Amino acid sequence: MGQLTHIDPDEADEAVRTRETTMLHHPTPDAKALGASLPPGFLIGTATASAQIEGATTQGRRSPSVWDDFSSQPGRIADASTTAVTADHYHRLSEDVALMSDLGVDAYRFSLGWTRLQPHGSGPLDAEGIAFYDRLLDELLAAGISPFVTISHWDLPVEYANGWLDRDTASRLGEFAGLVGERFGDRVDGWITINEPATVTLNGYALGLHAPGQALLFDALPTVHHQLLGHGLSVQALRAAGVRGGIGITNVHSPVVPAGGTEEDALMAGLFDVVHNRVFADPVLLGHYPQVPEDLAGMFGAFAEVPTEDLAVISQPLDFYGLNYYMPTLVAAGAGTGVSPDGTSEAMSELPFRLEAFEGYPTTGFGWPIAPEFFATALAEVRDRYGDALPPVYITENGASFDDRPGPDGQVDDAGRVGYLADHLSTALEAVAPGGVAEGIDLRGFFVWSLMDNWEWAAGFTQRFGIVHVDFETGTRTPKSSYTWLREALTARGRA
């Protein structure tokens, strides 16, 4: 197994001293300049997830997902909202495709509602569920928009009682992937097996912040392997189904910085880098789990005797690698107050490290630091760690939540999001360009999170990520200034 990342205490201390003043040195590019700078063939898209936008949870034979169940439990969701209606995309599909067509994007990344297509997580696909996604795919293709489909974006059937703690769930995902591959494989250009398994493990099973709400800390690590095995079995099933589109996985990567210059902070930053980044990427791209120091090995017993044949399934060559980037993480040794970037968890206070706030950076509505230079760091780390094993890369999510509200004229000015997207997209392009810090990565595209304001998991409707504003009482869509800016950028390269 590969070695745990070593973070030099002197370098860590320097990072702490400079992080308050380290910002991008180039001005925010205007839309036309950014559009003109896009490489030929570089794909620009938007992204969503079924549980966050579709609603219609009792339509047809759709059965409950773990998020339907979780959101119905008191105290789980910030504003006590549920998955029942969300953005009502199920009934506004054509309107949403028309918005994307007007925007001029190349691609749309969306996820399949597992329990809409396969009620109760077993048996054949449901005709009404098939009809919904058939119509979505056909309307996208008619509008010249390339479909990218995520098979598993967190919404497991409730019938899988132990969820990803159960190895059998990996087999169920592989079976589901085969069914949808056979049905939709002739019209999908990109297949993503699983979205952000790190967030599922850490928030759903280790900290209890997301569905299914378990707080198992390091005992949650079996869910890592089972999700990755489900990914590998899905790759096999999709290829057996003869799908035309490329196949990949999406992982979220967060560069990790020690909060101070001590050996303890460096060790805990390295530990967090392993549990957030490397245990999810190394097996897929290198075929093994990362090695950890002997005094930490007891935490990773779940990986001690992984079958070789499992790793062979997990590490099959991919057509692309999906990378989500939102923010860096600042880590200090010692237990903290139980506050994570996504909420408060009592389990956090039982960990040997704590997450601290980056000072000196503006923040999103979630309180996440806006630090686009760390996007370049994430790309450089991936390039350096995986080298020739890294396939072409898509940024499958990047975006920010802000408190967007219509003004007196009914319009929504989200200048902060315009700056965020411009800085992050230009940073990524500069990083992979000749002479850039991540030169050598074959970066193929960038998906904005998100097309529209949605139901933001445990945050409910309190966080807005969309470039289209949604009135959650009426369902009315209003393009924001970020939508207009992106359309202008895409027009500048001759796409709209």
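the 2nd protein, sequnce then structure:
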Amino acid sequence: MEMDFERCYRAVDSRDQRFDGWFYTGVTSTGIYCRPSCPATTPKRHNVRFFPSAAAAQGAGLRACRRCRPDAAPGSPQWDVRADVVGRAMRLIADGVVDRDGVPGLAARLGYTERHLHRMLRAEMGAGPLALARAQRAQTARILIETTGLGMAEIAFAAGFGSVRQFNDTVREVYASAPSELRTARGRHLAAVGAGTITLRLAYRPPLHARALLDFLAVRALPGVEEVRDGTYHRGLRLPHGVGQVALTPADGHVAATLRLADLRDLAPAVARCRRLLDLDADPVAVDATLAADPALAPAVAAEPGIRVPRAVDGFEMAVRAVIGQQVSVTSARTTLTRLLTPPDTTTDGVSRQQLHDHRELRGFLGAEEVLEVPDDGFGMPVRRRETIRALARAVVDGTLDLAPGGDREETVRRLLALPGIGPWTAGYLAMRALGDPDVLLDTDLAIRRGATALGLPDTTLTAHAERWRPWRSYATIRLWRAA
């Protein structure tokens, strides 16, 4: 990734938060690296180097600044925009694929050799996949050290390290402190929560229109899976090593997250999925600047800056939601989905799903294998729609359809359209919400047409008019829905 020194230095000198996560500032005179908005005195030019990733800075022998905590910066917004191999790799690394499957597993998911993948990541990120995953493990370890009372050996393996020695060496190298010193420096003020519960802050680039996010999620919330209550979004999660629950509360400058995990190895993927759900790595200033250049959208952008695209924690869940939501109202789709999720004879360890919901024990959505086991009368929908959902589930189970954030967007859309019962609207909706494509316009959607009319946009030529919104047409889609 090419970085202009003068532009980067101006961002550092002005402490511009918008560039946090875009690049990292290395200070050779102190041996530390910072986020661009670090409040410390701006270093002299000849003492500064800029890095495209925290892993690249660590590879140059620099340690993380204790003041600005660069490892906690928002992720780079370019990974939302880019659909190339590097962008897909970065999304998969964030989801913990390297920790679970190693570099061979990551390369296999992407369809490239390990050597070529390493070469591409080194060229753009300044570090290979192992180093990038190692930087993420270090951040996970720091969070566990500072927010839990777990022993260091437990933290080492929960963070994904292969040994306690590797854990100790990495923490010392990245933070210039032993793990025990990090905990002492924090004052051992650990949250009074149960085992497997972690509290942390999820950073974002302001502005964030939190009410729009919560409104969107609340009207589509499924009993027993998710709910919005007292300004907090709660939901259950299906994670690689077990289940979990999360409570997300938007606050000034961050989203407060409380995670309850059955297996602490799922911390990194849980955080990545929560960030993706709320679109926290977006650059709202860039998005709003493009949309506000259109006089028809300018008043809406000025009135509600920082609108995000609510995405998904599970691609298959979003696919089922999209199919059931075809040509029906949001309320009707929610009723059908609730029936699918809460058949009267379904129990878990002798406790019905309705009882679980009554006790606010939220569970993740059904997996593809579970959907294939649902009997015909458990769907409560037309036969053709039921068979479309089963075809989706079979494609996910046999691996012919990849709905994960690291999937190839164009190839996934092509395979979706090849399935019976899935048309351009459904494929586009999934590209926007499950695959994270920021440039989708659902121009055949009736509510989009109503929103366009409400804003004075040309309904008959909306597709042509929307060309000026590229590459942020997904954000325009959300605004048109709100206008409707």
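The two ends are 40 Å apart (CA to CA). The chain has a mean pLDDT of 91.
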